[in-house]
Structure formats: C-alpha cells, structure tokens
Fold:
Amino acid sequence: MLDPRREAILVRHKGKSEFVDKTDSILQYKPNSAHISITYNGGKTYTHPATSVKVLRNPVRIPLIDGAVVEVDGRVREDVVELWRFTDAGTPWWRVFRATKAGERHSMTRHVRLLKDAARTTAGIDVLNYWRAIVSRIPDKENSLRQPYETLRFVHPESVLGKFINGDSIESVGGVTPLIFPFSSNISQREAVTNALNHSISVIDGPPGTGKTQSILNLIANIILEQGKTVGVVSFSNAAVDNVYEKLTDLGFEHVMAKLGRKEKREAFFEEELLSARASFIGGLAKEGITAPPASELTDLAQTLHRLQEDQRHLKRLKEELEAYRLERRHFDQY
Structure:
C-alpha cells in the first residue's frame, strides 16, 4: 500500500477532465514512457495512458502556524492536523489530513490557504472584548447577543467583520456588469446599488419613503442574475424582511425566494405539495424559452437611462436654485 505522506497517484478517467486521487486504492504501479500500469487493491491491473496519470513524490510538510486556520476549497476547516504540499510543474497539490470521529482522513486538492484569524490580532481582540463587555451588561431577558459573541471563535481576515475590527480599508471588489434595474429607481438609488455591488460593505441610509426597499430589490436581482449565486436578506426585525418578501411576491417573483428564518417557515417551504407547485411553475417558465437581451443592449439602455436621470437631477437642482432666486427677489421687492 502506498504512503500518502510520500507520494500521490492521481488518475484521470477517459472522457473526464479532472484528476482523482487514487492513492489509497493502489497496491503498486509501473510507469514507462507511454503508459502506466496500475494494480489496484482488488488485485486487478489496468494500463492507463501516461497523460492520464500524475505521479507526485517528495512532498513538503507545511507547519500549521499558531493563530492561523486552514481554508480548504473555500471552506475554513478546524479539524486539519497536517498539510503536505506536492509540486506538479510548478502547480501545488495539497494533501490535507483531518481528524474525525472515525479516525484520520485525508484528501487531495489544489486550493488550500493558511489564514490568520482576524479575531486574534491586537486590534481584533480589543474590539471584540469591548463589544462583549457592552453585551454582558444587557439584561438577560433582552440579551440575544451574548451567546453569539461568546461563541465567536474565528473571524475570516477577508470578511467584512475582519476588515472592520482591524480598521482595514474597504476596497473595491468589482460588481456585476452590465447592471439591471427591473424595479423602478432614480439616479441616487442606481448609484447606491452600484456602490453596494462594487464593495464588500455598503450602507444605504435614508428616511422612510426614499426607496431603500427598491434598492434592495434591485440588489437581489443583480446578485441572482449570476448563475449559482444566492443572497440572504436578514434584519433585526421580521417586518423588514417580510416587506421585501411581500414586494417580490406581489411582483410575481415568489419562486426565487425561501423563508428560512424560523423552523415552521423552513418546514413550510419544504412541504412536498409546495415544492411540486414551485417546480411546475419554474418548468413552465423554462418552456416559454424567454431569452435575455444581449449584454451590449442592456449596457446601451443603462447608459441612456443614466444620462436622462442625470438631466432630471440637474433640472431639479436648477428649479430649486430658481425658486431660491425668486424668494430672494420677493424679499428684495419688499424692502
């Protein structure tokens, strides 16, 4: 049996593009210039083209730094006990060993990062301790924040919270282009949506009736426009979330939403009858064969609308300035 800490055998099966780690299922292998003969645990031997097999040897053990965590395939893992890095023509492959209840497990991946916990920096510790001290003084009956703060053990350094508690700048991350605005919006709301999609944190503030909910609807539309992306709408009060839900429902977009807050809401969403009705509705939409307009057309329309809204805003400013001059003239005439 092969030692996964010394070598790795990756096999790409016919018709597939990805290499799969087969190290644990291989007894032995014999390479030559054109083919590699592999004997598997069951005793059967197969001949693979040399281009369909990667033989990786002499890995380097990467020490786990105190205060750092391991991110594997975009997910932070707290159960990693060892990391070994193989090199394949300059591209690293990682052997990740994890401690589980069933014993030690390992896997191969290309995507591993060592991240420093943003909550364990000097600034992070000070800010979180300050917040915990404030939360601890809230009366127990009203204290829904104590448990989350006490159990907060790791803060991703690239998260909004990580940047906030360490005083890092909020840099532009690039947004979705071209943007769409299926729900009515003025130029200020469009700018708010654009800023929100281009930064990891954004604050949209304003009194009631200034279009904050419309901005949220347009944000949701742009996020879910990209295949595979989802968005969560959360608030300290149920009424704010229900408001967004009801507006989208009234406009015919109930099929893109799920109420997942309380247990009864989750159970209601996954009821077989409702799932069947939702699937039937979505299937009907798919059969209609509706196609989106070309991206260039969306861009041209967006630019035209933006120019018109800029003109509208400029006209409003001129009217306000004119009214101010008229008021000044009336006072002048009186004196």
